[in-house]
Design brief:
This is LacI family DNA-binding transcriptional regulator. By secondary structure, the protein is an alpha/beta fold. The protein has helices at 8-15, 19-27, 34-47, 53-60, 78-91, 107-116, 133-139, 163-176, 192-207, 222-235, 247-260, 294-306; strands at residues 65-70, 95-100, 121-124, 144-147, 157-161, 182-186, 215-217, 241-244, 270-272, 289-291, 314-317, 320-322. Helix 9 (192-207) links the parallel strand 6 and strand 7.
Length: 332
């Protein structure tokens, strides 16, 4: 027969203290004498007592859980990011609870459900520029961080790579490789990463006295990259380089150029990506890209999430240029 797990009441009885003292000791909230603390510690060790996280959450009003909200769970950049976030949360004594807003749902649609769980904080890994999900968290007193995104109209913290700077690096890299007619293939036009990467790329070309490049925006997928590269080259046959809003688009563009049009990469058309997805490192693609500093971004996000009483902050962390064979060897 399985032995009944000891309760806070049992600990209090054998330690000779009040149950309220045990509760304060476990939650870390409230004063407790050193004598009572030593008694409780001794009994907990002898009884092999483990606090009930549900009961502790009910008493404190918050569970030791951080919600991670996303809408693009199929994006290959996110699984390793989620794994690292989960590992870092556990080091802080916190657990992750994943919410995926499947189309046509948005972050705003799922946020009321998220907050029903009385989570300690929320990390939004995907958010449109119009998202008000972060506002709802702030109104409920729940810390929120937008990760790899930010909202121009919402509240809360945000952590992202310096995507404008990355776009500027992409422009310099392609021009240094000999490109004279670059173009841009964007992802979702409503997402801040796409807007900033496009803005940085366009502004840097303008500074170099070049006309605004041909461009198309739609979604962050391989299929879109495959299609868009062929569409743009059909309209502008003199295009000699593509800056792509992420590596999935870049991989699709490479295959569209090679197999759809019979051209060579990088001899005929250079390709530049973003993020350093796993696909960027594959031998079939070897994409020159901007590597997102994931570890630094996660550390900054968790710092902001657990910071007491801090005003909204936006952290921008520089990305790293990684040169591979989708651009000529003289790139950089």
């Amino acid at each position: 027969m399985k032995r009944k797990a000891p309760t806070q009441k049992d600990v209090a009885k054998f330690a000779g203290v009040s149950q309220a003292a045990v509760s304060r000791f476990i939650s870390g909230n409230g004063a407790i004498s050193n004598e009572a603390r030593e008694k409780i510690l001794k009994v907990i060790e002898l009884m092999d007592y483990e606090p009930d996280p549900v009961a502790r959450g009910l008493s404190s009003g918050r569970f030791d859980v951080v919600a991670i909200v996303m809408t693009d769970i199929t994006n290959p950049w996110y699984p390793p990011v989620l794994d690292l976030i989960t590992r870092e949360l556990r080091k802080l004594g916190l657990q992750a609870l994943l919410f995926n807003a499947s189309a046509p749902e948005t972050v705003d649609d799922v946020m009321p459900l998220v907050l029903q769980y009385r989570v300690r904080g929320v990390i939004i890994t995907t958010a449109s520029l119009q998202s008000s999900g972060a506002d709802l968290c702030v109104k409920r007193g729940v810390p929120v961080v937008m990760f790899n995104r930010y909202s121009q109209v919402g509240a809360g913290h945000s952590v992202s790579t310096d995507n404008v700077g990355g776009g500027r690096i992409a422009a310099d890299c392609l021009l240094a490789s000999g490109s004279r007619k670059p173009a841009f293939i964007g992802g979702n036009p409503a997402v801040s990463t796409n807007r900033d990467r496009r803005s940085g790329f366009f502004s840097r070309l303008a500074e170099r006295d070049m006309l605004a490049p041909p461009s198309l925006d739609k979604e962050y997928t391989y299929a879109w990259g495959y299609e868009a590269a062929q569409l743009l080259l059909a309209r502008h046959p003199d295009i000699d380089a593509f800056c792509c809003a992420d590596d999935e688009i870049a991989a699709g563009a490479i295959d569209g150029i090679r197999f759809g049009l019979g051209l060579r990469v990088p001899e005929d058309v250079r390709i530049f990506g973003f993020d350093d997805h796993p696909v960027a490192r594959q031998a079939a693609y070897e994409i020159t890209t901007i590597r997102q500093p994931v570890a630094q971004m996660i550390a900054a996000a968790l710092e902001l999430l657990t910071k007491e009483g801090s005003s909204d902050e936006r952290r921008l962390i520089p990305g790293e240029l990684v040169i591979r064979s989708s651009t000529p060897s003289n790139t950089g």
